[in-house]
Amino acid sequence: MTELFDPTAVYRALGYVTGAGQIRFVGNVRMLAGRTADTALAVVALSMQDRHLAFRRDANGFAATYRVELAFRQGLSLVQQVVRDERVVVGTFAETQRAEESIIYQEFVPVPAGTYRLSIVIRDQNGPGVGRFEGPFEVPRLEVPAIATPIPVYRATPRTDLAAVPDIVTNPRGTVDYGTDSLRFYVETYGLPAGSELVTAALDSSEHVSWADTTRLDSSRALRPFLFAVAPSRLSLGRHELQVGIAGGGVVARAPFLVAFSGQWIVANFDEMISLLRYFTAADTLKKLAQTPPEERAAAWRKFWHDTDPDPATPENEALDRYFLRLGAANEQFREEGIPGWLTDRGEVLIVLGPPDEMIDPHPDFRGRGRTVQWVYDQLNLILYFVDDAGFGRLRLDPGSRSEFDRIVNRLRSR
């Protein structure tokens, strides 16, 4: 549950850059060969959420401005620094509240090989928000023959000259939604002998190879770039690793990536997701989804996502986002019963119906057998009673309220 509502913990465990503070960001820093042997090209890729920036209305909708400060230090010496202002414009107020990856920042920074202290600071120019990261960072010397660490990308046009920068749009989180689009990686090799076989494989957390590809090099050019696309139907949920090496020569480069139901809520496996969705749809629908053979689950999930998405024109499934937002709220609000808040009766009602229009607790200071709390839903013409029958602090729907609640739920799902 911690990982579900705090994806940054997952990315941090994978070795990603994660920013702390009011502006939370996730990203990675990958290294490509520079124009000289002792200099590398750092590809800094960061992603943020619109909702962490202060937007102001302008002629084109709503705009936010932020500053990114990158610094590579050795001791007290500042070796390389980049300071850049960026502007984000969205058309509607609703877009300013987006909670998924909605802003991508990337920078190409030439840095001499060596050991550094890397700091990244993002400042909101319209408000007090700040996000920070600082940690050790190693810039390798990519001596030929070599393979650079794979870079997850949304699109890429390979470069043909080490003096240039590649035309890529990075995927800072290295994440792909389960069963949807392919995950793409940009890989560069340097001075590999002609005839070498480049072996690329995606391994899951159990080190099972879920996808593999082999490419034979027809020349020994100083720079050979490649773009690999890993099909979603071949990937299971959870943490994976892309490994790139030379046949017979072992793995040379590797990069972690994540297959998730959503960038906002990360679930470890299929069965766990089925359990978490117990209040979202009918039990028969979930049972059918749970019984899907493993090789068909990605397609089944795509269909489930499509069938439950109230607005297919947007990349999000607003119904699922709202559901998990309420699930998180239930976990926070109803901790006192000794079980996860979302599994309590009040948690169930909050998740399914939302917060009540009125909550009546005649004796809020009383804790014991007979305590009764009322929730009133005006538009549903519904009053629910939660009673502590045993005196152990667990408030359960009384039988009449349970019956009324189930009736309302069945009516809402039949629309």
Quick recap of the structure?
This protein is α+β, with helices and mostly antiparallel strands.
Please describe what this structure looks like.
This protein is an alpha+beta fold. The chain folds into three domains: 1-140, Immunoglobulins (Immunoglobulin-like), CATH 2.60.40.10; 144-268, Immunoglobulins (Immunoglobulin-like); 275-413, no CATH class. It is 19% helix and 40% strand. The protein is built from eight helices and 24 strands. It has helices at residues 2-5, 7-13, 270-276, 283-290, 297-308, 318-333, 345-353, 399-413; strands spanning 17-18, 20-21, 26-33, 39-48, 56-58, 61-74, 77-90, 103-112, 114-124, 130-139, 146-147, 151-157, 167-170, 175-177, 183-190, 197-204, 209-216, 224-230, 238-246, 251-260, 358-360, 372-377, 382-387, 396-397. Strands 2, 5, 6, 7, 9 and 10 form a six-stranded antiparallel beta sheet that branches. Strands 11, 12, 13, 15 and 18 form a five-stranded antiparallel beta sheet that branches. A hairpin with a 2-residue loop joins strand 6 and strand 7. The chain is elongated and about 80 Å long.
Provide the descriptors you would attach to this structure in a database record:
415 residues; 3 domains; five-stranded antiparallel sheet; 24 strands
Measured by DSSP, the beta-strand proportion falls in 35-45%
Helix content: 10-25%
Judged by helices, strands and strand pairing, the structural class is alpha+beta
Overall geometry? elongated
Number of helices: 8
The CATH level-2 architecture of the largest domain is identified as: Sandwich
Distance between the termini: 31 Å
Number of separate strands: 24
Low-confidence stretches: none
The CATH homologous superfamily of the largest domain is named Immunoglobulins
CATH top-level class of the largest domain: Mainly Beta
Number of domains: 3
Cα-atom radius of gyration: 25 Å
- What is the CATH third-level topology name of the largest domain? Immunoglobulin-like
Roughly what is the average pLDDT, rounded to an integer? Answer: 89
Largest sheet: 6 strands, antiparallel
